Amino acid sequence: MRYLIFTNTPAHVHLYRNAIERLRDRGHSVRVLARDYGCTVDLLEWYDLPYEIYGHCDTSKYSLFRQLPRHYARMLRLARRFDPDLLLGMGAYAAHTGIATRTSTVLILDSEPTSLDHLLSRPFADAILTPAAFRKDLGEDHFTFEGFKECAYLHPDEYSSRGTVREQLSLGPDERYALLRFNAFGSHHDVGKSGFTPTQRETLVRRLAEEATVFVSDEGGDMDLANLPARRFDVHPALMHDALREASLLVADTQTIVTEAALLGTPAIRSNSFVGEDDMGNFVELADADLVRNVASFEDALATAERVLADPSVEQAWRRRRDVYMETKVNLTDVIVDVATERSVSRVQSDDPRLERQSIRS
To answer: What domains can you pick out in the chain, each with its CATH number?
Structure first.
């Protein structure tokens, strides 16, 4: 079998990397079509995955829209040359490539606000998989699973720490630290959204540095730390999950890393303009499980972060809740591999309790 897999962002690399390795171990041919965005290529190289670049996108707003014609031209050419039997991805690129190459396409989606992407991709996908917490019905070919896309690489059966991140971060064995992750808000689904202002970022650093060592991961790369009591998170991005697991706290105005922290048992505070009554289902569920604090205002986010750092017992309590919570979640890599080898979600779902038709659930 020949599988073509799209990785448009670093998170997509993590989503599919374990499935790619298993499929290749079984003798299948796999090709990744990647967008050069953020650390996507760094991760593909780290995990030694077979990829070709179809285009570039920086973190500035509207960069993606300017690049779209060239992206489509190259990805369609590369896809036709590879001639896949099944296509996997997370949106319109994959769905439209499937139509152009007459290839069955399975999408994994997890963000309700990306309505434009749903509109452009849903009619052309053979099947769509989403977390059970997903708050939309995408039609008769929509299937759900208990968990999140991050369960493909952070499920206890998939994730294990390398145990070297503290050394690489120059930290003592018991040194507590907080990780701050700031979004560039450059993706298409981020248009019109916002997070911490420059002044708020500096305030976070100064206040949290009173309780713990502070590391900053700035997606836009423009935050000046020269006069701030913080270190730049500058180890390889493939070690981010190990760093998250060891951290005493994550504060972020971005999305994926918050779910990752929750699934690793690290106290996580999320604050951006997505937070509110129509928030995404995964963050609502994680908040209900007391694994994420979704806080709209900066003042409340800061106060919550200070309370967490002031009480070291919070970390163990959070980890215990995570252990219980993960007992109910699927290993998504297992699901992806089964669907890929069957080339049909329906055949897998017919006698598999891990998958359920959304239309039946509704």
So the answer is: 2-155+329-361 (3.40.50.2000), 165-326 (3.40.50.2000)
